Amino acid sequence: MLSAQTVSIIKSTVPVLAEHGLEITKTFYSRMFARHPELLNIFNHANQKQGRQQQALANAVYAAAAHIDNIGAILPAVKLIAHKHRSLGIKPEHYPIVGENLLAAIQEVLGDAATPEIIAAWGEAYGFIADAFISIEAEMYAEAEGAEGGWKDFRRFVVDRKQVESDVITSFYLVPEDGGAISSFIPGQYVTVKVNIPGAKNTMLRQYSLSCEPGKPYYRISVKREDGTSNHPDGAVSNYLHETVKVGDVLELSAPAGEFVLDLQDTRPVVLLSGGVGLTPMVSMLNTLATQGGERSVTFLHSALNGNVHALREEVLAAAGRIGQAAKVRFVYEQPSETDRAAGAFDREGRIDAAYLAEEAPKDAVYYICGPVPFMRAMVQALKANGVADESIRYEFFGPAGTLES
Ligand SMILES: Cc1cc2nc3c(=O)[nH]c(=O)nc-3n(C[C@H](O)[C@H](O)[C@H](O)COP(=O)(O)OP(=O)(O)OC[C@H]3O[C@@H](n4cnc5c(N)ncnc54)[C@H](O)[C@@H]3O)c2cc1C
Ligand code: HEM
């Protein structure tokens, strides 16, 4: 337990640290990587470059510190991060490295304002927060390893099939190289894929939602190729998977993780709302509802630029067909092509907005949302404007968690 004095120092310094939050975490990362270059094999360099990871860590440390006398209040947030950590293979021995460099960064940025008393209190508080993460992650590792067909860290999977799903999305069917069973998962969960790209200095880790339903002898991921622009390089892993990885090659996978999951006990209508490649967890959920959902009402709303980039279209229609009357599918294209028009490939031209949601989706439903951040922000705002309760809205970020507040 932390002393009352430590708690009071932490609480009174949180606003100061939060104010310098980004500067501290940036200093922290550059210090840490200079001293522990091996950690560059774990962290996503693109997220670092864009500042997204720094922001996520800064937010988490201050949120934890602000609740230091009642850490239970932020348990859901801690669990979400712990899932990601477990899928990345973060271990207890990594925590002191982060702690030491974070404290040194606080000292460096705040200078004399960070008195020895303040630094000592933050050292204690960090240890307390780290212990909470370590124990939750230990449970998660044990669970991943103990599950039937489960494993602890990374396991080698062979690409059994590679399927082009659209101009930009390709699926990979992955089977374990050892020929053993694979653990089940809850629709909506993701795996971390580890790759060693020839010529790259470090291994790279990326998360991909499982787009198949559980219970198959394989996992399937569906990956969008992230093309670069004049000031952004091509996405490293997605391009490598698309261009170089072929049938028979090996990818290393974590066991499935994540809390953005379909609750099959819930009998309320469910709305699966996706933009672009954000449809991957939704397809897993839809297929699962088709086999296990009974009479439950399901609305699948998907927004894509046009038919050329729209993946898994036939699979979605087939799953909805198996559900029958209780299922509704709507495709919304922002810029349909002439071919899309001729084929009647979409239900609405433009974007999904509040009025369309009110028209097509039941208000008393539970909503699962995934897509680009601006899409998710617009959907959450529209649903709230339509009177949908916060508790009925769930979403997944395809990157470090951020905020959807504007
Ligand atoms: C839980 C979860 C589930 C996910 N599920 C899926 C899924 O089902 N399908 C899917 O396709 N993706 C999914 N993702 C996203 C995926 O993990 C990767 O982020 C994505 O494939 C891009 O990785 P990459 O290595 O190709 O790109 P990266 O190399 O990581 O680059 C990402 C972006 O950053 C830009 N960038 C890179 N370096 C720099 C730089 N130096 N300066 C400025 N910009 C830079 C790139 O141009 C690119 O736009 C998921 C992510 C999460 C967290
Ligand atoms: C108490 C200490 C820690 C806190 C509060 C913390 C917090 C976070 C947060 C908020 C995220 C983003 C999660 C998401 O939304 O995706 C994250 C991701 C991550 N964390 Fe931690 N973390 C801690 C310790 C560690 C340690 C010890 C390591 C290993 C050295 C580590 C490595 C990572 C990595 C590699 C990611 C993913 C980064 C990315 O893909 O960009 N973390 N952490």
UniProtKB/TrEMBL annotation:
Q: Sorted alphabetically, which InterPro entries does this protein's record hold? A: Cbr1-like_FAD-bd_dom, FAD-bd_FR_type, FNR_nucleotide-bd, Globin, Globin-like_sf, Globin/Proto, Hmp, OxRdtase_FAD/NAD-bd
Which residues does the annotation say bind FAD?
Y190, R206, Q207, Y208, S209, F397, F398, G399, P400
Reactions accelerated catalytically: 2 nitric oxide + NADH + 2 O2 = 2 nitrate + NAD(+) + H(+); 2 nitric oxide + NADPH + 2 O2 = 2 nitrate + NADP(+) + H(+)
Extract the ranges annotated as region (Reductase): 149-406
Active-site residues, as the UniProt record annotates them: Y95 (charge relay system), E137 (charge relay system)
Q: Which residues bind NADP(+)?
A: G276, V277, G278, L279, T280, P281
- What is the required cofactor set for this protein? heme b; FAD
Question: How the cofactor binds, per note?
Answer: Binds 1 heme b (iron(II)-protoporphyrin IX) group per subunit.
* Gene Ontology molecular functions: FAD binding; heme binding; metal ion binding; nitric oxide dioxygenase NAD(P)H activity; oxygen binding; oxygen carrier activity
Q: Report the residue ranges that make up the Globin domain in this protein.
A: 1-138
Query: For site (Involved in heme-bound ligand stabilization and O-O bond activation), what residue positions does UniProt give?
Result: Y29
- Supply the alphabetized keyword list: Detoxification, Dioxygenase, FAD, Flavoprotein, Heme, Iron, Metal-binding, NAD, NADP, Oxidoreductase, Oxygen transport, Transport
Residues the UniProt record annotates as site (Influences the redox potential of the prosthetic heme and FAD groups): K84, E396
Q: Where does the FAD-binding FR-type domain lie?
A: 152-263
Q: Which GO terms describe its biological process?
A: cellular response to nitrosative stress; nitric oxide catabolic process; response to toxic substance
Q: So which domain of life are we looking at?
A: Bacteria
**Residue positions binding heme b:** H85
EC number, as in UniProt: 1.14.12.17
Q: What does this protein do?
A: Is involved in NO detoxification in an aerobic process, termed nitric oxide dioxygenase (NOD) reaction that utilizes O(2) and NAD(P)H to convert NO to nitrate, which protects the bacterium from various noxious nitrogen compounds. Therefore, plays a central role in the inducible response to nitrosative stress.
Give the comment on domains. Consists of two distinct domains; an N-terminal heme-containing oxygen-binding domain and a C-terminal reductase domain with binding sites for FAD and NAD(P)H.
To which protein family does this belong?
A: In the C-terminal section; belongs to the flavoprotein pyridine nucleotide cytochrome reductase family.
Provide the protein name. Flavohemoprotein
| Organism of derivation | Paenibacillus cellulosilyticus
Gene name of the encoded protein:
hmp
